[in-house]
Amino acid sequence: MPVLDLGLIFRTSPIDPDLIRGKSQPLFPSGVAEGYWLKQASMSPYAGSMYHGSPLLLSLLGPLTVQRIKGQPSHLFCSLVFVIADILSAMLLRGIGHKLQMAYGLNARLLGLLKSPRDKEGILPSGDIAALVYLWNPFTIVCCVGLSTSPIENMAVILALNGAVTRRVPLAAFGLVMATHLSLYPAILTIPVIFLLGYGLDAPPLKLFLQTRNVESDNRSSTSSASKQAKLKPTAHLPFLWRTVVHFVFWVLVWSLCVLVLCGLSLSKHGGLEEMFKRTYGFILSIEDLSPNIGVFWYFFAEVFDFFRSFFLIVFHVNILFMLLPLAIRLKHRPCFLAFIYLAISSLLKSYPSVGDSALYLSLWALFVNELAVDMKFSFFLFCGYLGVSLLSPVMHNLWIWRGTGNANFYFGNAIGYACFQIVFVVESVSAMLNHDRALKKCNPNHQEVKN
């Protein structure tokens, strides 16, 4: 049986930092500034090597990179926009948390778990906690200081979830379309948003409510078994609001058409929509830029030979899709939590991750503090891991890129550790939520198996 020689797939020579350091450094504070300068010079904003974002975002932020107040830094206006975006995101998160907290209290009351006012006082304000976690998260602050566009992308994602939670269909569709347009990966949120609009907010499995109703019907009267089954029949399946979902699909098509028309007009003299798709989505999927980041793709594809590159591109990207369906089937009764899991997985497996992705899914995790606070077993371990990786990443980057005293393996080892902590965090969160649902079944005083 032949043995696969990894030397035929991966280059054995280490990455040369000079190749990365030797890339042309533009005289601009950010990629947005470079793209806007090229556009003002009647060139394609994608003619350079730094900007690969939305032309609409370029039209919004580009003018702010050249406007300045006397005696103040040129990026002051951009920083102000990012701060406003983070504040709006925190307010939207607080609204989502308030709705989820009300649903949590209502479901607990229906299941007979809240018998006294003291039990109700034990419900934590998840919306306030999520907003504070997002605003005071060091990752969020770093994104603002580093002039990353992550705050705007995160705001679009949170806007989509807020619209779905509050049943504002046009708002949910607009947020999803804009989030997908800005960074592609939020397209997977279509599944949890449809569940939110079709089934409603997060709740324990329907079987628990069926068992409770069965016990209540047995206690009220001793009617025949046929009449009992008739009473349970209307609630045997969770009603799905197809009309709302169709309304959502309609608005998604409307907003998508508007975005495409605006992008086409913006790039009418520079290749049109074909150029945009090639330089944005194509850039994300083909992983052309191998500059170091907190992900693992850059090192892997810098080492792999070009002959195997297409194969591993397909494998890496399909990994995300393989996880969508099983998680959707198992967690369809908790669509907001499903959205959090999807975002955490995509931040782990996306081509160009940033710390802004972690800031987003960590704040969404705080929305479920009532369900997960007790069952998370490795909270302290994960906290120390995230803290250690956050401190080591800039140190390793400085040693390798700027001082030249380290090598790629130092920085990549830190990225691998970060990926491992994210995997443990996702697995722990899913396990804790499933354990919480099992605990509800055991603690339900009206628990009784549904009779056939």
UniProtKB/TrEMBL annotation:
It is a multi-pass membrane protein. It is found in: Endoplasmic reticulum membrane. Belongs to the PIGU family. Keywords: Endoplasmic reticulum, GPI-anchor biosynthesis, Membrane, Transmembrane, Transmembrane helix. This is GPI transamidase subunit PIG-U. Pfam families: PIG-U. Pathway: Glycolipid biosynthesis; glycosylphosphatidylinositol-anchor biosynthesis. The chain crosses the membrane at residues 76-96, 139-161, 173-199, 248-268, 280-301, 307-329, 336-352, 381-403, 415-434.
